[in-house]
Amino acid sequence: MFPESEYERLYTGSLINIQFLQTLLQEKGIHSIVKDEMKSGMMAGFGGGIPDHIQLFVKKTDLETALPIVKNNLS
């Protein structure tokens, strides 16, 4: 999907939390990518993944700024 060396997983959780965090990150100018294996599997015609196990990724260069956003808003 994307180069492993460029992005780092920031958070794994429910879609609601992911969308909330994406909004906060966007306000700080941080681009994020969502990986939802369950939704991808359903769209491809086969099951897979775990519900509410959606992953949020940011560039490694943004990780230091993004981590406190998660910690301060999803404690």
TrEMBL record:
InterPro entries: DUF2007, N-reg_PII-like_a/b. Pfam families: DUF2007. Residues 10-72 form the DUF2007 domain. It comes from the Bacteria. SUPFAM superfamilies: GlnB-like. This is DUF2007 domain-containing protein.
